[in-house]
Amino acid sequence: MSRMEDNQDPLEQARLDKETEVEIFKAVRSADDDNPVMPVKLKSSDMFCFSCHKGVSCWNECCHGADITLTPMDIVRLSKHLDIKPREFLAEYTVPDKWDRADLPVAKLKMTGADGKGACNFMTEEGCSVYENRPATCRYYPLGLASIKPKGSDQQDDFFFLVKESHCKGHDEDKLQSVTQYHDEQGLADYETGNRGWVDILMKMASWQSIGGPGGKEIPAQTKQMFFLVSTDVDGFRQFVLESKFLDTYEIDPEAVEIIKTDDIALLQLGFDWMKNVMFNDQTISMKQNVLQQATAKARENMGAT
């Protein structure tokens, strides 16, 4: 993800007025001088030509040296595809990193080669070996996804834009489709549902980095570690919810508890709601009344109140 450059459209006036935060989920390998990202807002009905197949001259070129930050849903889907635990997937196929704009830990897909510029581990001569469960970045390409959030507002608007890299010949193909048709064909709906809370947190933290969070307080390292757990290891977070004092502390409907035992998307939504509460004090999840009373009493005691 990255912010639009000041000299790029659209939304120039909003940027000048500093009224809008614009974050871009880049469905590209990397940004460089030869391949500038020039976002132009697309409507869902806008049409574009693109097709990627084995007959295209650049076949598999974009699968080398890819800079792919994995989303929570990427890790869920890929772990299941490979029939391994998320923590095993992390150890074998990813490298730890930090999304600097939000100062939060993320996992990136490991490339082959000593310099990390080699092919993706899942690339074969026939194409992607995990194609049906490929990462969101690969699904979006050649579209990029941007989120716009007015400062001071919790509401945000997502839009797509077209990315044209010099190496990609898929744009020369004559397959014409609308943004909506491409989005649906790529199976992005579940990814966006499962990743929504994660994106929200990254955006809010990016805003904090530029304007300062409440009281200028830094997010504790332990909280960042828990954010990484929720983001990358649904099995580990499920174990934490079910075996710690989590359910004794928070008001979680018994029916919802049964759902999160098997539903990873529901578990991710709970996890990021909890993180928003812990990190930003958002009222996305509630403590049980007796726990809240005990916490209040302890706080008063620590302040010497009666």
Question: How is this structure best described in words?
Answer:
29% of the residues are buried. The chain is of the alpha+beta class. The chain starts with 11 loop residues before the first helix and ends with a helix. The protein has 2 domains: 12-203, no CATH class; 233-302, no CATH class. Helix 2 (72-82) packs across helix 3 and helix 7 packs antiparallel against helix 11 (264-280). Helices cover 40% and strands 14% of the residues. The strands form 4 sheets. The chain has a 3-stranded antiparallel β-sheet, with no helix packed on it. Strands 2-9 form a two-stranded antiparallel ribbon.
Q: How many strands, what sense, and barrel or not for the largest sheet?
A: 3 strands, antiparallel
Distance between the termini: 50 Å
Kindly provide the radius of gyration, computed on alpha-carbon positions and rounded to a whole number of angstroms: 21 Å
Count up the helices.
12
The low-confidence parts are 1-20, 27-31
Which strand order spans the largest sheet, edge to edge or round the barrel?
1-7-8
- Counting helices, strands and paired strands, the structural category is alpha+beta
User: How would you state the average pLDDT, rounded?
Assistant: 83
Tell me the helix content: 40-55%
Query: Based on CA inertia axes, which overall geometry fits?
Result: globular
Spell out the helices and strands N to C.
HEEHHEEEEHEEEHHHHHHHH
Q: How much of the sequence is in beta strands?
A: 5-15%
